Amino acid sequence: MLTPTCVWRATPELILALDVRFGEPVDAYVNGSQVWLRDDGPGNITLEWRLHPVASYKRPNGIDTYEVFSTVAAALAEGTDPPAPLEQLWDGLEAFAAYGEELEPATLAAAAAQALDIPPDAAGLVDHQAIADRWEHSRGATSIITELLDQLAT
After folding, report:
1. Exposed, middle or buried, 141 (CB in 10 Å: 0-12/13-18/19+)?
2. By C-alpha distance, which of 48, 50, 55 is closest to 8?
3. Cα–Cα distance measured from residue 55 to residue 108, given in angstroms and rounded to the nearest whole number
4. Is it the case that residue 103 has pLDDT exceeding 80?
5. How many domains are contained in the chain?
6. Alpha-carbon distances, residue 93 vs 62, 80, 139 (angstroms)
7. What value does the mean pLDDT of the chain take?
8. What domain range includes position 70?
9. Fewer CB near the terminus (10 Å): N or C of the chain?
10. Rounded-to-integer distance, Cα 43 and Cα 119, Å
11. Coil, strand or helix: which one is 94?
């Protein structure tokens, strides 16, 4: 099954936009993922916004799983060094319909760009199951963003 999705590469500007426009994630995972669920899709469809960790993510020492995003965003906003370089934390952001609603990738990309005020680096259809299988098989040593971008490039 193919899922319409949008992808942004992680940059300081992206992290700051997420913080300013979306606020705290609704959930955070020990694998480094940060998640927002927002009614930003066309017709108020709920989109899942998932900040994906780098391959083999390691949480910065001394910071709770639920505080990583806010700590990093605050440091970037203040112009100070975050507890770990961004490239050691997250590869990028993905947005897709949270509950499997049918969307055209271009429609999703337009709605997501408006919500975040940053256009995605790529949009299209992806096979989430194949990516999840490779990530599980590698025990988290695979970059989900690289996998997504590879699929979107073909």
Report:
1. exposed
2. 50
3. 26
4. yes
5. 1
6. 24, 22, 20
7. 96
8. 3-153
9. C
10. 19
11. strand
